[in-house]
Every structure is written in C-alpha cells, then in structure tokens.
Amino acid sequence: LEALGPQLVFLSEENTNPMSLGTLRKHLRATLVVTRQAFQVHMQASFFAFCSYAAVWQTLESVMSAQEADQWMATFRVPPRDKGLWDTHMTALASRVHENPILNEYFRTLNGEALYQTLQASLEGKSFLAEVRRRALQMGNRAPQEFELHSPRWAEDPRTLISAIQARLLSAGHPTQPIPRRLRGSHVFNPTKRMNPVQRWLFLRKRESYTAYTRMRERTKGLLMACFTELRRITKAAGQRLYERGYLNQPDDVFFLTLDELDSLCVGEYDHNLPDYVVQRKRTHDYHEKHLPAIPIVENKGDTLRGTAVSSGRVTGRARVVRRPQEAALRPGEILITEATDPGWLPLFITAGGIVTEIGGLLSHTATLARELGKPAVFAVPGITRRIHDGQQITVDGWEGTITIHEP
After folding, report:
1. Overall pTM surpassing 0.90 (yes/no)
2. Which end of the chain is more exposed for a tag (fewer CB within 10 A), N or C?
3. Is 365 a catalytic residue?
C-alpha cells in the first residue's frame, strides 16, 4: 500500500496535453497495473475486515441474542481518520460564502441547477467554483457510481458539493434522538459485563482488529478510487485525441469502448463498424439507467417498515426521495430515501438527518460511512422508494431497523 501511493501520484502529475496516443496508451497500461495491485490490496483488507467482524459478532452472540449482537454492531462506530480533513475544507468553503455578500445572496435565494448555473456565469461564482474543485481534489475527488469511468468526479461536476455547502449554511443542527429507555441500561451497550476475563480479553482484541481492518478497508478503497480517477483522466484525454482524428463522434464515446478496442485505436487500427457498436452500447446503457430490473420482493405493509439496522440512532424528519445525487434537493435534517448509495454520496450523507435504502447491508462501505458520521440508517427496505413520498414525516430507528410513517 505504501508503495502504490507514490506510483499513482507520479502518474497523476504527468500532463496529458502534449501526450500522443501512443504515450497515452503506455500511461493507461501503467495505471492499470497500479489499479490491479490496489484492487488486490483492497480485497485483502476487505477479507480481513469481514473476518474480524464475524469474530466480534461471534463473541457477542455467546453472551447475548443474535438480534442484540446485530444491534451492537450497528452501534459501534470506527472513528474516521479523514473526517477532520473533510470538515476543514467544507467549513472553509461555507465561510467564504457566508462572508461574501454576492455568494451569500446566491446561496440563500437559489437552489439546484439554478444556483450552479448562476455560479458558472458570474466572476465571483467562477472563482468560488475553482476553489471548490481544488478542495475536491484534496478531499479524495470521489463520485457517485465511482466505479464507472463514465461518472464525472467531484472536481469535474461539483454540484453535489455545492448542495452540501448550501445545506451547511442553512443548517441549525439536527441532533438525533437519545437512546431509547428500554435499551439504555441494556447489556447491548455494555457487553463486557456479561463476559468472563478470558472472553473480555478476546473481545477487546477482536474489536481492536475490527477497527484496524475497517480503517484499512476504507483507506484501500480510497486508493482504488484514486486509481479510477486517473484511469478516467487518461481515457478522457485519449477520447479527445480520437475524436479529433475522426474515430469517435463525441469524445465521451471512448467510455463505450472495450479496452482492446481502445488499445487498437491508439495504434491506428480502426474498425469501421465501431461507431455503430458505440451507438448501440449507448442505447443499451440509457435503457438500463431508466429501467431498473424487476426484483421479486415482499414489500412491507402497514405504517412500520422493516429493514436492516446498519447505523444506530433515531431521527424524525421529512422524507426526500433521491434518484440522482447531482440533482438532489435535500434540505438539512431531511431523511434521504434512495435505492442504493456509494461513498460518492458523502455530501448528501452529511446533509441528511438519516438514511434509508432499498439495497445494502451492515458491511457495505456506505453503512460504515453512516456509522462514522453518526447518522441513523436502515438499509435493505423493500420498495421504500415507492412507498415513501417527498415531504412525509417519518421516523428512522437505527437500533430496531424500522421506519415509521406518521403521515399517509
């Protein structure tokens, strides 16, 4: 891991502007080597994180019920090492808006795309967006659907960050509700009291391992995503060159090529059927983006829905169903309702009072992120995006794994 970081930094600092297609091809191959190594390291870290999770859970299950062990795991939070970095950058950006009358007016009176377009059109806004992009690089430059090379990173499309900055300016704080009285004195929160000295020693050692490997898993995921960001940068540069030579109808068509097809084009081997292949692949991609597969589910009935508790806490607020994070109109304290998330949704997690998804589990990256941020979260709730509507008052219980609907 320590060796891969410097290799990636060296590759990412090379200027692509003067590179020929042949040089870009070599650079892409070198980046792929680092990416494969980063993926292997990440898989190893994930394996040990999962094993240590199972070891902790097994020890807990020996002194309490399986349900109580699940509750403890949803409560235990691994303190993030980079949360301070995120807070520093976001606070600095919010302070700049607050102290600038022009920017402050934009952020107080505009929302969503109107705000972003206004920032792009004004001198103050352009300067601010430049700082947002610079800080996005320092915050990891993640992206929604970040395993897709086609997905723009935060520095390229900062709208998700802009929404988070606006929410921070408008937020007055939305603390979660205290631990329920019935659980407050429970051994769920003091498991070592039921353990003998040997069990206690083993439990603390296993918990320490779980903490270390969970941090390593997130750290290696960050490195892997940095590799994908570099792959996107090089692929996009190659797409521009191929477009200029007439091989592609649009520069971004490069993301609809196979690696072998891109490699052939870089050495001048052109298949005249390629444009037709790209058109068909884009149509297929667009279709599947708009038509999610029908998953056989047994939907919850009644006013209380059940899922998997992945991050403890209880919060009541207005629901906000979000399909695409770039277009989210999430307000501070609202409950984020969506089909699935990834770490690229981090800005929305910080804004939300709680998180509910149709897909996901306790060991997912976003569940870990929710626990780190202290956000009540319930995942794997069948049909939640169809059952809940914007503005409904709901309660998310991250201890019990329930969502209660207060308004029809």
Report:
1. no
2. C
3. yes
